[in-house]
Structure prediction request, 273 residues.
Amino acid sequence: MYKLLTLDLDGTTLDSQKKIPPETIEALKKLRSMKVEAAIASGRGVAELIDYREMTDEIRFAILLSGALVYNCQELKPVAYRAIDPKLQREIIQAGIDENAMVQLLTTGKSICRQIDIDHMDDFAMGIYHSMYERVCERCENFFDVVDKYSDEICKINIYHRSIKSCDVTQARLKKFPLEVVRAEELGLEMNSLGISKAVGLRDLCEHLKIDLSEVISIGDAYNDLELLKIVGRSVAMGNAEDQVKKIADEITLTNDENGVLATIRKYFGGDL
Prediction:
């Protein structure tokens, strides 16, 4: 019945230690042999998938940057993407700088930060990601130089703050601009072009694959999964999902530390997976 399975990463496919259970990888291999497409649907960018090669080796596509980018993991190239207006890129960056926050620019292939921020990720409640950022991020000194070079490819900007109050200030400041602004992590904001969501990326992918939305089953846990979960044939919330996600989902599975993803795959695609 279902031809496409989409999987959020953080809080869903990844356990609390940011690892993918090997049983999940084996199930994805079997899905591929059954001609069932599987796709990541994440707020992460291409560079941030480097630690999950075992997963991207088993799937063809990823909906990334909260839906602003659909990426072919086998051919290593974008299928579709939507950049933020360069003027708004500058407004977002300046808002982060004024709050002494950590700014991250995400392009169709790069994750770009300042080294000084990576060195102090605990200050932004992002310490669990420190090792990954050290390995995958391209460093810059001046974000506006990056805009001059990559403005056509910058699809998402994240700002991680030192306090909830600081995060509130940035969110209020950016509210006047035509942007999607989503609270993420403990002290973070994620910015995309207005109208962008994982649902937009899913529609792009379904059009590319010629698959109807009714033939899609999706699993997620967070607010940025809501729009996608509302439009698919079967929506599944993780046991650790936000209450609002659980409320709109067709069903609730186990938590990410109990491998709710594997339980769902087995339920809908075969108990021996």
